[in-house]
């Protein structure tokens, strides 16, 4: 294990604490979730929200969708009183759940609620710290130990060091300065610094995350913490020029905490950070790990790669009919995420001739519909790779149309060529 170097003098004891790489007011989800019939949700999660400096009304229902879409969680939402209202009766029953997801930044919890939460985690309860929840409770010492790093709320060097990746190792930096910042929202690359942890094992070592706030200059106790992943905060976007912690795990008593700095909430229908497949999958995997200590979920074909963004508009893979409905009004220059998802769906079916035959049947119907010509050209391109004689009649019809004739001819000739010998 590599030693961590300090930029400013700090005790060796603190240095050793960072691990290096080698229900009330329940709300209904905003989305209708779709879970495999064979999936059995065996774990329960409580999402704590109600106050935030971000759009918790958007984020909390989405978090519920994401957890339920994993097929292994049920999820409830509890809302605190509004900011400035009486908090004395706010006392979630943490002990009834396998996982608590924190989507809260606001008024202090009652002392009894704080103690109950600390006990829940010490005794083995799982926790997910989501995005701005690391802004909360600067004055609650144990909360900051549980989150590892936090930002804003007046945080500075008195709250702990910055933690950055420099020259192939993590460095704790006790430089004076604010705690918490981010530049302009943009897409950025995540680098997994620990690749053998259950959460990151099998993921691409580097992958693109959609437009988001890149949290930087977080500082805190950083005790019993493993930084799984970092992102470079490019100065071109107002960032620090540092490789900043993005995904972390923290041990607290018998409890496990997964901390993701990703996922700034947008608005319904325009929520790129939370729609990112990388955010969704790492949240699902982090939640399972926090609740059980292991990860059983497979990595989807749609997971983003080094230079490839990937999104799920409904926070899950779309069905074929949903994808075709998404594509019917497609025009060149539009977002291609639905086309990419269709390609991924076809790839999954490549070894099953009966599934490919069903897909071809649906695509033939699409080509004969009133969908846009640009969308038909995209389908012609796709079907040219694996289509059969069944597609030839509709392709011949499209060859008579000015805006589709070239791509239809290409697809027809490519398919016909397979049967020429």
Helix and strand topology:
Blueprint: E1 5-6, H1 12-15, E2 18-19, E3 43-49, H2 56-69, E4 73-79, E5 99-102, H3 111-122, E6 126-130, H4 141-147, E7 162-166, E8 169-173, E9 186-192, E10 206-212, E11 225-232, E12 243-252, E13 255-260, H5 272-275, H6 277-292, H7 320-327, H8 337-348, H9 353-367, H10 373-383, H11 392-398, H12 405-417
In short:
The chain is α/β, with parallel strands linked by helices and 421 residues long. Helix content is 29%, strand content 18%. Strand 7 (162-166) and strand 8 (169-173) form a beta hairpin.
- What fold name stands as the CATH topology of the largest domain? Rossmann fold
Q: What is the ordering of alpha helices and beta strands?
A: EHEEHEEHEHEEEEEEEHHHHHHHH
> How many β-strands, per DSSP?
13
Principal-axis shape: elongated
The CATH architecture assignment of the largest domain turns out to be 3-Layer(aba) Sandwich
CATH class of the largest domain: Alpha Beta
Keywords:
single chain, 421 residues, alpha/beta, Rossmann fold, 12 helices, 13 strands, disordered N terminus
Structural write-up:
The protein is of the alpha/beta class. It folds into two domains: 288 residues, Rossmann fold (3-Layer(aba) Sandwich); 98 residues. It is built from twelve helices and 13 strands. Strands 2, 3, 4, 5, 6, 9, 10, 11, 12 and 13 form a ten-stranded mixed sheet that branches. A three-stranded mixed sheet has the order 1-8-7, with no helix packed on it. Helix 7 packs antiparallel against helix 8, helix 10 packs parallel to helix 12 and helix 11 runs antiparallel to helix 12. The termini are far apart.
